[in-house]
Amino acid sequence: MENIALIGIDLVKNSFHIHCQDRRGKAVYCKKIIRPKLIEFLATCPPTTIAMEACGGSHFMARKLEELGNFPKLKSPQLVRPFVKSNKNDFVDAEAICEAASRPSMRFVQPRTESQQAMRAVHRVREPLVQDKVKTTNQMHAFLLGFGISVPRESAFLADWVPFLRTVGCHFISASYC
Question: In this protein, which residues make up the domain named Transposase IS110-like N-terminal (predicted)?
């Protein structure tokens, strides 16, 4: 374990495939490790550069590896793809991650902090909700125009019109909007 200079990890949900290389790029160690054992394994290795694709779970893992004194490097999966040498599998992917990380001109992604990740998650969840609201409002406007009723574009005005529509007998709007 002393001569490991670079570790490539292919992140999967429950298990990880690791590929370790020495300074000359020669494979030293390849293994499949389950999630709980990965941190134990990396704690026994001397501090080194650990390369991973930037994907789900990679930012958390990068923070954990920094706590152990390692130097995590995340790269976009599109930049790793050209280095896959044969049929795609997790061990070949881990080797390609090492190969890509060893290139001097390779670009890396900065690992996100927990607060950055949380803010991104909020935005990613909010975006489809806003799109659904706009879609539903536009749909209701179209239905109303079908009955000759023109309502101002702001959704607050539309909410004000719902009780009126009930009184005039427009039952085409579901109870969830009323």
Answer: 7-146
